[in-house]
Automatic annotation (TrEMBL):
This is Fluoride-specific ion channel FluC. It catalyses: fluoride(in) = fluoride(out). The chain crosses the membrane at residues 35-56, 68-85, 97-117. PANTHER family: FLUORIDE EXPORT PROTEIN 1-RELATED. Na(+) is not transported, but it plays an essential structural role and its presence is essential for fluoride channel function. Fluoride-specific ion channel. Important for reducing fluoride concentration in the cell, thus reducing its toxicity.
Length: 123
């Protein structure tokens, strides 16, 4: 059990650091709100988790520990659902209803599409 927790924890650490890097890059390089960095992380994370699970379903590769490292750990640390919900909440409380609706809709729809694309690429 300790080995499983270690793999998940290391993956989560790396996923969280990667998410932070993506958000900072969105602000520093593109000059856009971290709001879009969060959405990019969620969409990219959906693609990655779809790709990983698709590969695991098709091929018998990697141990269960590495699978957990990539999916539960890395993708779990990389995607930002709690941040996503808080940003939507902040948009509502600040009266930015259209922004919230657009952000939530695009994140959900493109996220679902990216999970599908990840699965399809793995096949």
């Amino acid at each position: 059990m300790l080995k499983v927790i270690t793999f998940i924890g290391l993956g989560s650490f790396l996923g969280g650091v990667a998410r932070y890097g993506l958000s900072r890059a969105a602000v520093d390089l593109a000059g856009i709100s971290s709001f879009w960095g969060t959405m990019a992380a969620n969409i990219m994370g959906c693609f990655l988790i779809g790709l990983f699970y698709g590969i695991f379903e098709r091929y018998n590769i990697m141990s269960e520990h590495w699978r957990l490292f990539l999916t539960v750990g890395f993708c779990g640390g990389f995607t930002t659902f709690s941040t996503f919900i808080h940003e939507n909440y902040a948009s509502i409380t600040e009266g930015r209803f259209l922004q919230m609706a657009l952000y939530a809709s695009v994140s959900f729809l493109v996220g679902m599409l990216m999970v599908h694309v990840g699965h399809m690429l793995a096949r």
